[in-house]
Specification:
The protein is of the alpha+beta class. Helix content is 28%, strand content 27%.
């Protein structure tokens, strides 16, 4: 029988594969939205309320509109990304505009090729980066000339700029076609650059897998990140210290090392410092559920999985750090201590 953590990782990989396929299928169908033209569905943003980019996308070399823009607010989003809307809401969703485009007749022979462009307007630049980062695995390819954070691959791509997160879905397109389209659309997106949350700076750069960092907000993003972040005691779902101005917990993660020896670091920032010993006891219970040889080593809680990989936990004030599946015990402790030191120094 496989260890529980190994079973969980396989199930998460299967779910992510299904989500990617569903996103492409749903985006290609592009149905169920509110018509953004005058006289569109009640409850959709009016033209006066929307930035220009949410109303029209013109002047993309080699591409021409293949229909009217469709807009989605909170209620409509459930129908567009059935089963995936809640995680978007937890990052602070405002509206979505969906455009369908086809190759311009002058630039290509007749074809059934179609590109779906999704532009999500979020509540802040940090929120836009957060929902963008949930798609990152690390080492994604970029495209020359695009300054905002982005990635490009055959059939799809994405970028984040200001409070906007952009998905490009075109299963029949090459990486070159996606890259050139992304380079053309990026200057049209409002904002100056990608806005990363302050906590991204707490992730040590040494040994980090390029582009693997994530901003974790809300319980769904936390659950998707790791089974070790599923417990309510972390406070991702509800504000801690109600009435004292403290918000819910947030986290920042990144991968480290070289395949197959890749580990993960997660830094958690709490709304306020957890009660004495309560956090450690809760994490201890989770470690005992998933790991073996669990013990305390000074201020660090540690355990190993069936493959002999190390899992470490440390906590100081309003910050906690987790090392997940690191083959080198010394490297794990060094990274844990460095992350907590950098987080504490930022206060």
């Amino acid at each position: 029988m496989e260890p529980k953590y190994t079973q969980y990782r396989k199930e998460r990989m299967r779910i992510r594969e299904l989500v990617v396929v569903a996103s492409i299928v749903i985006g290609a169908a592009c149905s169920g939205g509110n018509d953004a033209r005058p006289g569109g569905s009640a409850g959709s943003p009016t033209a006066q309320d929307q930035p220009a980019i949410m109303r029209a996308v013109d002047g993309i070399p080699g591409w021409t509109p293949a229909g009217d823009v469709e807009t989605y607010t909170k209620d409509g989003l459930y129908g567009y990304i059935d089963g995936g809307a809640e995680i978007v809401f937890q990052y602070g969703f405002r509206e979505l505009a969906v455009f369908k485009l086809k190759p311009a007749a002058a630039s290509a022979p007749p074809t059934q090729k179609e590109l779906v462009l999704e532009i999500y307007r979020m509540g802040s630049g940090e929120a836009a980066f957060g929902i963008y980062s949930t798609k990152l695995e690390g080492e994604e390819e970029g495209w020359p000339g695009i300054k905002s954070d982005h990635w490009v691959s055959p059939g799809q791509g994405g970028l984040v700029k200001g409070e906007y997160m952009v998905n490009i879905l075109a299963p029949e397109c090459t990486d070159r076609e996606i890259g050139e389209f992304a380079a053309a659309i990026e200057p049209k997106i409002p904002g100056i650059a990608t806005i990363r949350p302050k906590g991204m700076a707490w992730l040590p750069r040494e040994g980090m897998v390029a582009g693997s960092w994530r901003y974790i907000k809300g319980p769904l993003a936390a659950q998707n990140e790791s089974p070790f972040l599923e417990g309510d005691f972390w406070g991702f779902g509800t504000a801690q210290g109600a009435g004292d101005g403290m918000g819910a917990a947030e986290a920042y993660s990144a991968k480290y090392g070289v395949a197959p020896a890749v580990s993960k670091l997660v830094i958690v920032k709490f709304g306020k410092s957890p009660a004495e010993n309560s956090l450690e006891e809760s994490v201890l219970a989770v470690f005992k559920e998933y790991l073996k040889d669990v013990r305390r080593d000074g201020e660090t809680l540690e355990g190993k999985n069936e493959a002999g990989r190390w899992f470490l936990f440390g906590h100081k004030g309003r910050f906690a750090a987790l090392i997940l599946s690191e083959p080198d015990r010394k490297a794990a402790q060094t990274r844990l201590d460095t992350a907590l030191t950098m987080a504490l120094a930022s206060r």
